[in-house]
């Protein structure tokens, strides 16, 4: 007899991107920022460490809430801090989605959402993006169990009660495509959905577009943000939620009592206050992204318009082996992400690195396309 909950035993578990031990590879596989974070963040960590760590941190990360609230034009009680935005997503799923209820996500998108539903014993409904990375109308409608509908939703067995849909996740920009859905479109989706919508804005700083004004107008819209990508603090683990206070009040009940430590609260606060650093770094990354996108297209890849810090590259040639290219790049010291989505094409997601690394990686792709193995 197994003591494990059946839904946990049955799930595969989320597999994070490869993290090589040393510096032997240039990492272009997990959308980290290639630049060093604001020195103000490092100074803040040293200052906290010097004062000592014998006391618990502020339980809600109040200093960060105040800094983020000032930036986004809301009050501090519109912000919840988390141990990375993955922690925020966990808290949201636990707050809104119960056993056998339904969580909706677009496909292909961030794989973690589905794992979170599985942990809850909830069902997930993957609504396929259309070929141009727009969403079908079904995405904002009440769920149906029709298994062969043209929007290619995964079959929902056992019938679906119209009120079973409890939460919808929408990464914007999306991963792996990097594509952006306009805010007006998201507003329409939010207004017709029968449940709250979480817009995962992990990459929004690279797009320069956010749904934050929508959160102010619509209490059912919530935004998750991370310091891992645009602020170059993936190792710190800090993310946050922007939502109306009545939502935050509920999610605060579900989070761990001290889900963020004193070092991360101080560093994230200093980082978000250094908007000059953010603007300068984002500008460099966006410029490199545009070049990378252009070059990959010249080399024959289909690359949807990326508004994030990575590109999604699919070679339309028959018999092209994306995994072989991934292995060729890896052998030559460049680690990118090979992604294989069942019932969807596979491809390579390449994070935007420093100019010299992006250029060297692109040169390797070119050699591969010219037949080198
Ligand atoms: C769409 C999306 N959301 C959230 C995250 C998680 O970020 P964090 O480091 O804040 O947990 C990622 C990380 O890759 C992501 O791609």
List the keywords:
alpha/beta, four-stranded mixed β-sheet, binds pyridoxal-5'-phosphate, globular, 2 domains, Aspartate Aminotransferase, domain 1, Aspartate Aminotransferase, domain 2, single chain, seven-stranded mixed β-sheet, about 40% helix, about 375 residues
- By DSSP, the count of extended strands is 11
Ranges where pLDDT stays below 50 over 5 or more residues in a row are none
CATH architecture of the largest domain: 3-Layer(aba) Sandwich
Q: Beta fraction of the residues? A: 15-25%
Question: Could you say what the CATH topology of the largest domain is called?
Answer: Aspartate Aminotransferase, domain 2
How would you concisely characterize the structure shown here?
The chain has 373 residues and is an alpha/beta fold. It folds into 2 domains: 23-37 and 276-369, Alpha-Beta Complex (Aspartate Aminotransferase, domain 1), CATH 3.90.1150.10; 39-274, Type I PLP-dependent aspartate aminotransferase-like (Major domain) (Aspartate Aminotransferase, domain 2, 3-Layer(aba) Sandwich). It contains 13 helices and 11 strands.
